[in-house]
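Holo prediction. Input below; ligand is alpha-D-glucopyranose.
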Amino acid sequence: MRHLFAGVLVALSLAALGAQDRGPAQLPDETAAQKEARLAWWTDARFGMFIHWGLYALPARHEWVKKYERISDADYQKYFEQFNPDLYDPKAWARRARQAGMKYAVITSKHHEGFCLFDSKFTDYKATNTPAKRDLLKAWVEAFRAEGLKVGFYYSLLDWHHPSYTIDRNHPQSPANDAEFDALNKGRDMAVYRQYLKDQVRELLTSYGTIDIIWLDFSFTGGGRGKNRDDWDSAGLLRMVRQLQPGIIVNDRLDLLDVPGGWDFRSPEQFKPREWVTMNGQRVPWETCQTFSGSWGYFRDETSWKSPAQLIELLIDTVSKGGNLLMNVGPTARGTFDERAKDRLSAFGRWMQLNGPSIYGATQAPDTFKAPPNSLLTYNPKTNRLYAHLLAWPMGEIVLEGYADKVKYAQLLHDASEVRMSARKSTTWISEDSRAGDLVLRLPILKPDVEVPVVELILK
Ligand code: GLC
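Structure of the complex:
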């Protein structure tokens, strides 16, 4: 009798585990206008902070170190035992993000290594059991919200620590051939892991109030020993996410690109798209995520840090094509932002403090406006202002072809000083006819003390 009862229980729970909907994903659909309204705050914000923080901050040589160096769980354990971010001050992080001009932030609640910054009921592999002894996510959410930023969680679909997660080609223990894969995967069961992943995402979306963004990372299909929508039960997971947090914005890595409602924005990674990202010929919301120096986690010896000018240009370039920029910081294992990161954030802040109007609420300029040489245009449709970002400071004047009769007033954005306009160029000895439709801007010879100066054109 006892046995029978236990058997029924096992059967019931197995049925629950297997109950994920694998059929055609009927995800809640919405009209294009409804989606646009749901994403409006994010589209206007344009600029956010990504934070990759986990045990990999200790080795400080890439967040994929466990895979790259094929470190076993036993050998990786030392980082868990040593994790003691004694200088962790999320309020200081949040202040820096706000001062850099960022409007939202997304943090790794769990990365591929499987370690959780939050106090999950479903694992012991979490910050509360390290010398940190607390839920590091809770204070983070509170601090970022208090600075007026929207908050998002990155959650890794991959898990290199969970015992049921099957060994795939990205796993630190990936062997050389199929027979070994099969041997290693005996006893591992993705149904168990799928439940774990769903339980943790539910925890994340029910324990910390309103969560504005969820970043689920990532599917790797094709090529063998990958993982796709069936491994994660992507449709079921996403349905749960939208049910728990109806307003939430979701990235595109669940392997549901072909499913209506299966993603909210495209996420080109460490890559500058050549134009507004499209799907089936339609412009779609997009966000590029970028690093300061190449890796996402703290990497002590990396020297490939981008310059402030490169980074500011990256932000402008992104907005000039209708996209968002999610700029990553990899905090140290002490819980601090490294000086090089602080330096880049301050550079963003100095520029954004004066030039924010060319970024927030701005987008790609209408096709009727051609960007002058060495410049990037953005446009604010609400205020009907056009912004010319001058990447190379010109010698005295620039010609805006076809702008005549379109501009009411022009000024440098950072100090609201007038930029005089005229219909013709100031030529001597040769006469270079101004073409009909040209508008010539007269600029000072001296480049203003701004990383990338911006001319604000108030349109008629
Ligand atoms: C990749 C990497 C990962 C990083 C992420 C950010 O998927 O696996 O380390 O977190 O991209 O977009």
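Confidence is low (pLDDT under 50) at residues 1-25. That is the main takeaway for now.
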